[in-house]
TrEMBL record, chains A, B:
CDD domains: HTH_LacI (cd01392), PBP1_Qymf-like (cd06291). InterPro entries: HTH_LacI, LacI/GalR-like_sensor, Lambda_DNA-bd_dom_sf, Peripla_BP_I. Keywords: DNA-binding, Repressor, Transcription, Transcription regulation. One of its GO terms (molecular function) is DNA binding. It comes from the Bacteria. Residues 4-58 form the HTH lacI-type domain. This is LacI family DNA-binding transcriptional regulator. SMART domains: HTH_LACI (SM00354).
Amino acid sequence: MSVPKLEDVAKLAQVSKTTVSRVLNRRGYLSKETIDKVNQAVKELNYHPNVVARQLYNNKTDLIGLLFPTVANPFFGELTANLEHYLYQKGYKVLIGNSINDPQKEADYLDQLLVKQVDGLIVGTHNQGISQYHNDNLPIVAIDRVMNQDIPIIASDNYAGGKLAVEHLLVQGARKIIHINGPQELATPAQKRRAAYEDVMHDHHLQPITYEVDFNISNTDKLKVFRQIFVEHPDVEAIFASNDLDAALIMQIARERRLRVPRDLLLVGYDGTQTVQSVWPQLTTVIQPIEFMAQKAVTVLQNRLHNQATQSEYLLPVQLHVGTTC
Amino acid sequence: MSVPKLEDVAKLAQVSKTTVSRVLNRRGYLSKETIDKVNQAVKELNYHPNVVARQLYNNKTDLIGLLFPTVANPFFGELTANLEHYLYQKGYKVLIGNSINDPQKEADYLDQLLVKQVDGLIVGTHNQGISQYHNDNLPIVAIDRVMNQDIPIIASDNYAGGKLAVEHLLVQGARKIIHINGPQELATPAQKRRAAYEDVMHDHHLQPITYEVDFNISNTDKLKVFRQIFVEHPDVEAIFASNDLDAALIMQIARERRLRVPRDLLLVGYDGTQTVQSVWPQLTTVIQPIEFMAQKAVTVLQNRLHNQATQSEYLLPVQLHVGTTC
């Protein structure tokens, strides 16, 4: 038996194809009798409506695209898992694009939005200068990323997080504290961690020293930069890393140099994912509210899709997890 | 100005809508003159073809669904990142579904395949008895999961991995070795790690003891089960955990009980993701070839989509990473 088609349903129910389509999409006025006849025929034939045809008819796909550097990173993995959870509750399915190091790929995924394959996007990529973002009023929400004036940003309170980390290091007695962050020209909310670090250091008449590493480079290349810290500043007492995986690389170098943490070196990370907390609970780190950020992003995107007003920024609270590295 | 439509292109190019559609989808014979006229009009109007209309016309969406328990788990996060990479290279985009603990959600995602929203699926979920899998000849590939006879499985060599782990523990002098794995009634290739453990133990005239925990339960519930190991077997010398996150929980209990690893307890994990290797390089573990598994799954799925013959199982090699926990 061949796969039943819309016209088979129409024939059996003795109505037009348009009527079948209207029943399946719940559009326009239809008598109860017509609805029952069509549903009966659908059941009898075991007809599966082609969802793509329905998408075309309704001019929406109920798909949301998520653009992040890579779900291999536990922060983006946990964020994506939470976003998928909340979007699924709202009736959306999720298309993912991992655009690490690849602006062309990011642009390609953005085109999916423009050609209506997805209804909206949630974006947290690190690439810059993608021209598609300059269209106004796109149903886009950014997480931890500045796109253009028009696109709302969901972020945790990076300034407060940076302040918590540095003040904790100061309380533990550290004075020569070095910070690691992404390149300053990349306008991300995470730069506020650096601003907080520099402000707190200045308040205490201490010299801030920040090393910049591109998030997208390999661990091998990051290790090269991080080893320089210990060569150029052999008297470093503490490091505040802008993410937990960078803190893990610092730990690796500390082992190489036989520095004991926390005796010889204090260390604070950032992100506090469940994976890293579970595998390395000793790490003192700033915990981002990943689940809450996902929930908020989905709510704001829905407002955007329904043309409701949204704020330009939503700041969510962070907390310090005190382990044994500081 | 309103968004240009297909009929605007047809009007400007002075051809029929069908002709425009055939040019855009590269279907049927068309003169160079017609193609040029249409492309010129598309350019002039800045027309974006509706991809959903094209999907309907071509009866394919170029979307592949990935069904895994959760990308919050680093093994599935890294697997998904690699699958997305290879699928993107072949012109596919990726729809994800995280079905942890939720057979209904898994069934819902499978329906997406049956209603043609996705062209194929790569599945590694843990739920059982989903009736949709009983359709024959679906374009599905399983990773580390037994579905039905008809669906090819990509797995790393779990038997060899289990053997490597247990033999290493024996060489280190352990005799009372306990294993943790998923429920035996769940027919997963990972059960072969248990089979290898039991075979090697029997070969050495030792008693195998396996604790079963459901992958989907919370860490709190897992900890309850794992604490029982130490109550019921206070003389345990070594634990072979079936994944690295479970090994991290064992480590947590060892700290609670002031057992030093490896002096008082030997520990071997499984999976060897980059995240865990980076954050906890001391863990001795069996490394699954995640990138290679992803690459193979994409190739086999493509064969399946093109109705080419596939093997029922593909076994990929594992390796032991020796850290300091054993």
